[in-house]
Design goal:
With about 280 residues, the chain is of the alpha+beta class. Helix content is about 35%, strand content about 20%. Strands 3-4-5-6-7-8 form a six-stranded mixed β-sheet, with helices on both faces. It has a five-stranded mixed β-sheet with strand order 10-9-11-13-12, with helices on both faces. The chain has a two-stranded antiparallel ribbon with strand order 1-2. Strand 6 and strand 7 form a beta hairpin.
Length: about 280
């Protein structure tokens, strides 16, 4: 039976206060495992998923994260990408993606990340992106400023799409209509488009290096951690209709550095979706 109430501030604040400490403990445990497997190579197996591979390191990493979360909050639920869900006794759930970007991990590209989100009644209230090879992390919690390390040069927020850098993990995400048409049309409006990065690119958006990210075929464990981080940075994140991202949202993610840019892109998608004939 779920007993904790979102309005009962101590329950929420307790978890948010310990979020940073929790992620530091996790990072200390998983960093050497991920680095060793990344350098030495990891055996991959096929799986029936949008990302069609899984490695033994995915599973081992998730087991470690689960164990630490359970030590801190034994009554909370846990939802992981690779292992069975754990139903808790509270309205809080920890969403784990042990290796976001397993293809990059297997290919030797240091752009994969580990993701952890804290949700309350399917609302993301805490998020962590961690890249163990480059030693980068970003933490966003409800009501708090963004935490990150290795601050880079942040470029000014563009005033128009023509000044923006657009990013997406792969064009393969956009094969179905109207998504491919949307990506092509948006690509004509922005300054330049870059591919690759998985969740790492959202850290780069927060850093002010990327201005717009569009993705489809995204699952809850892919985007739950991203929501609090983008919002803590002052950015905006939603689906392609402007709806907030929750567990049962569409598989679309749009993240931008400003509300103005966000609204411009939502209008482009609406034009594409409502058009009866292809747009030039």
């Amino acid at each position: 039976m779920q007993t904790e109430d979102f309005n009962d501030e101590p329950f929420l604040q307790q978890r948010l206060n310990q979020f940073s400490h929790l992620t530091k403990k996790i990072a200390k445990e998983i960093q050497p495992i991920l680095e060793k497997a990344f350098i030495g190579g990891a055996t991959a197996q096929r799986k029936d998923s949008v990302s069609p591979i899984v490695t033994e390191t995915d599973i081992k990493t998730e087991m470690i994260i689960r164990k630490i979360v359970e030590e801190f909050f034994p009554d909370d639920s846990i939802l992981g990408e690779e292992l069975p869900d754990r139903l808790g006794k509270t309205n809080f759930c920890w969403v784990i993606d042990p290796i976001d970007g397993t293809i990059a991990f297997r290919s030797g590209k240091p752009l994969f990340t580990s993701l952890l989100a804290l949700t309350f009644k399917d609302k993301p209230v805490g998020g962590w992106i961690y890249q163990p090879i480059l030693n980068r992390h970003w933490i966003g919690c409800l009501g708090s400023e963004l935490q990150q390390n290795q601050y880079g040069q942040a470029y000014p927020v563009p005033s128009s799409l023509s000044e923006c850098i657009l990013s997406t993990t792969t064009r393969d995400m956009f094969q179905e209509s109207p998504y491919l048409q949307f990506l092509d049309l948006l690509g004509k409006e922005v300054w330049m488009t870059t591919y690759g990065g998985d969740a790492f690119q959202y850290g780069l958006l927060v850093d002010g290096r990327i201005d717009v990210i569009v993705e489809t075929q995204m699952s809850w464990h892919d985007y739950a951690a991203l929501v609090p981080i983008v919002e803590a940075s002052g950015g905006v994140i939603s689906d392609f209709s402007g709806n907030q991202l929750r567990k049962n949202s569409s598989h679309e993610v749009l993240a931008t550095r400003s509300e103005k840019l966000h609204q411009e892109i939502l209008k482009i998608f609406q034009r594409v979706r409502s058009a009866r004939t292809p747009l030039a």
